[in-house]
Design brief:
about 210 residues, mainly alpha, Lysozyme, 2 domains, about 0% strand
Length: about 210
């Protein structure tokens, strides 16, 4: 009996030590999972509610507002941060007002198969918000080395092959400009500006 009691006490002490170790390491693991402000892959830093609140505060129109919940549904399926794509869509579409050649529901100025022109006929024209968001998610998946959701648009294969030939996959917003996704050298800073403002709103009290 005394021998069994000693064994039981040893098991309890060992279990307690394991729980203690787990408790110490869990916050470290959680902290490591937090996505950096320039990273594209990973969990969202801001909630859908915060992003919708920010979109309303800068007068985004219905094309952005309707797309936001779809981004939060689809982008995490490829470990892509949804608010990064929303911020990119705000830049690409002029807050959803589409002042350029790209038309709704093309959320990121994505072209057809392999055109060299910049006319309206060279851009994809998705029929619905869901198709437009899925195409945007898939396009970022092409640059980040992820597989598409469903059957991708033709440009997916061009973008994926071009990035693979470069020998690296996109991981940060900073890597999107200078001819990778866009020619504009200020492209990344425009996206991060929206994300920074989302962050300020995230930490401010709700009105």
């Amino acid at each position: 009996m005394r021998y069994l009691a000693l064994i039981s006490m040893t098991v309890l002490l060992t279990s307690g030590l394991a729980v203690s170790v787990d408790a110490r390491t869990e916050p470290v693991a959680a902290a490591a999972a937090v996505r950096g402000p320039d990273q594209i892959l990973g969990a969202p830093r801001y909630s859908q509610t915060t992003v919708e609140r920010y979109a309303r505060s800068i007068d985004c129109n219905r094309y952005i507002m309707k797309a936001i919940p779809i981004y939060y549904r689809l982008a995490p399926r490829r470990n892509i941060a949804p608010e990064v794509l929303v911020a990119q869509a705000m830049v690409e579409t002029g807050r959803g007002y589409y002042g350029g050649d790209s038309k709704p529901w093309n959320m990121a100025g994505i072209k057809k198969g392999s055109p060299v022109g910049d006319g309206p006929e060279d851009f994809e024209v998705p029929a619905t918000a869901y198709q437009g968001v899925r195409m945007h998610v898939n396009h970022m998946a092409a640059y980040t080395g992820k597989r598409p959701i469903g059957e991708p648009h033709d440009r997916f294969y061009d973008a994926s092959a071009a990035q693979k030939q470069r020998g690296w996959w996109v991981r940060s917003i900073s890597q999107l400009g200078d001819g990778i996704w866009a020619e504009d050298p200020t492209y990344a800073s425009k996206i991060r500006n929206h994300l920074d403002n989302m962050g300020r709103l995230h930490h401010s009290p709700s009105i």
